[in-house]
């Protein structure tokens, strides 16, 4: 994340504008890694003209912004929101893609933490957001079977799982309140992403394309979406192919 904001060879590399290492080495600033990153992002927000010049003419282009992973940039600071608003002023159709490591999400406590981070980013940025559970190819068969319930989560089940572990009444009550908050919003579900599975990659790309209506002048295609019921064709298709191998 500290290496660069953009992943688009030949288009834009934020290190041409400012580098975290340079900020950290500045004796007058004395920032650590996190403080240096925040300084760089705020400096970037004050120099959007550099980004505009770097992007140039991008009509019908598909531009990927590889953003830093520090959650503070999406929850505590207005920098990413400012970037989104600037892109929209330039008539970009913007979709956020929130990546969560599937190996981190196999326990209910960790899942609740991850889903809160995703929800916080969705509320802060106020743009369509696709939430993706990455590195599915690295999970064991048992872990894949366990993680299926987290793709379209039932927060009341999360409460039951957590209650069995927690002994403190205070933390039980807090966990119940957090799960209830997430359920009230009802905004977060995840798509599985397996880089070794072309179909998994296509499904994620279709959802992103549909969200920003990319190529709307072409033949209209709806993404392979979940139905209204809890059983998802997307989830069923993926896990039938991979769990029982």
UniProtKB/TrEMBL annotation:
PANTHER family (UniProt xref): GPN-LOOP GTPASE 3, XPA-BINDING PROTEIN 1-RELATED
This protein's UniProt keywords: GTP-binding, Hydrolase, Nucleotide-binding
Pfam family of the protein (one): ATP_bind_1
Record InterPro entries: Gpn, Gpn3, P-loop_NTPase
Chain's role: Small GTPase required for proper nuclear import of RNA polymerase II and III (RNAPII and RNAPIII). May act at an RNAP assembly step prior to nuclear import. Small GTPase required for proper localization of RNA polymerase II (RNAPII). May act at an RNAP assembly step prior to nuclear import.
Species per Swiss-Prot/TrEMBL record: Pygoscelis adeliae
Family per similarity comment: Belongs to the GPN-loop GTPase family.
Name of this protein: GPN-loop GTPase 3
Subunit structure: Binds to RNA polymerase II (RNAPII).
The organism's place on the tree of life at top rank: Eukaryota
Gene Ontology MF: a single term: GTP binding
């Amino acid at each position: 994340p500290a290496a660069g904001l953009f992943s688009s060879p030949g288009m834009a590399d934020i290190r041409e504008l400012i580098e975290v290492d340079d900020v950290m080495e500045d004796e007058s600033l004395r920032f650590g890694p996190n403080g240096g990153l925040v300084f760089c992002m705020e400096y970037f927000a004050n120099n959007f003209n550099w980004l505009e010049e770097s992007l140039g003419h991008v009509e019908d282009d598909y531009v990927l912004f590889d953003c830093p992973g520090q959650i503070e940039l999406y929850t505590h600071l207005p920098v990413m929101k400012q970037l989104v608003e600037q892109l929209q002023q330039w008539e970009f159709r913007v979709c956020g893609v929130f990546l969560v490591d599937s190996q981190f999400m196999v326990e209910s406590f960790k899942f609740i933490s991850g889903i809160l981070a995703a929800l916080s980013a969705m509320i802060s940025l106020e743009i369509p957001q696709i939430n993706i559970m990455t590195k599915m190819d690295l999970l064991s068969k048992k872990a894949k079977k366990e993680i299926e319930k987290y793709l379209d989560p039932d927060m009341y089940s999360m409460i039951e799982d957590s209650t069995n572990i927690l002994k403190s009444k205070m933390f039980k009550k807090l966990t119940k309140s957090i799960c209830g908050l997430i359920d009230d919003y009802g905004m977060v579900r995840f798509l599985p992403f397996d880089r070794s599975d072309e179909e998994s990659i296509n499904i994620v790309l279709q959802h992103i394309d549909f969200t920003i209506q990319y190529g709307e002048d072409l033949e209209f295609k709806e993404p392979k979406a979940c139905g209204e019921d809890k059983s998802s064709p997307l989830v069923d298709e993926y896990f039938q192919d991979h769990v029982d191998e």
